Amino acid sequence: MPSKTFVSIMKHPISIALSLILAVVISLLTLTPISVQGAPGSDKLYHLLAFGALAFPLAFGSPRNAVWVALLAIGYGALIEVIQPYVGRSAEWGDLLADAIGACLGALAGWSAARLTTFVRKAIS
């Protein structure tokens, strides 16, 4: 029998689809060689935003699992950092830290938005 966490997340296929699309985009952007360098430190902002965007839909779709969503996104970021040296990129602890902060902020924002939506729906009805 599937766990309650799995069943709860599976009730929200749009959240899952959006997060999977974002995960593929993140993989493509982080695991392909880059030829252009941005402003110093800007890549950390990109990591933070990408992993925040990755965590938000699942945490919004299943707010009770927001902590697990954040941990899953952080694990995904760690996996990317482990793979990067094998595809001509460099792994950096700073990238993983930015991934973790983004994942936590995205999960928190998703949880907050879901709670606010529930509150508003109850207040209206």
Describe the structure.
With 125 residues, this protein is an all-alpha fold. It is built from 5 helices and no strands. The chain has helices spanning 4-10, 13-30, 42-61, 66-83, 93-124. Helix 3 (42-61) packs antiparallel against helix 4 (66-83), helix 3 runs parallel beside helix 5 and helix 4 packs antiparallel against helix 5 (93-124). The longest helix is centred in the C-terminal third of the chain and has 32 residues, at 93-124. The N and C termini lie far apart (35 Å).
- Terminal CA distance reads 35 Å
Proportion in β-strands: under 5%
Q: Figure out the total of helices.
A: 5
Give the helix/strand class.
mainly alpha
- What would you report as the Rg, rounded to the nearest angstrom? 16 Å
Nearest-integer average pLDDT:
89
Task: Report the sheet with the most strands, covering strand number, pairing sense and barrel closure.
Answer: none
Helix content: over 70%
**Which word captures the global form?**
elongated
Order of helices and strands: HHHHH
Annotate the secondary structure layout.
Blueprint: H1 4-10, H2 13-30, H3 42-61, H4 66-83, H5 93-124
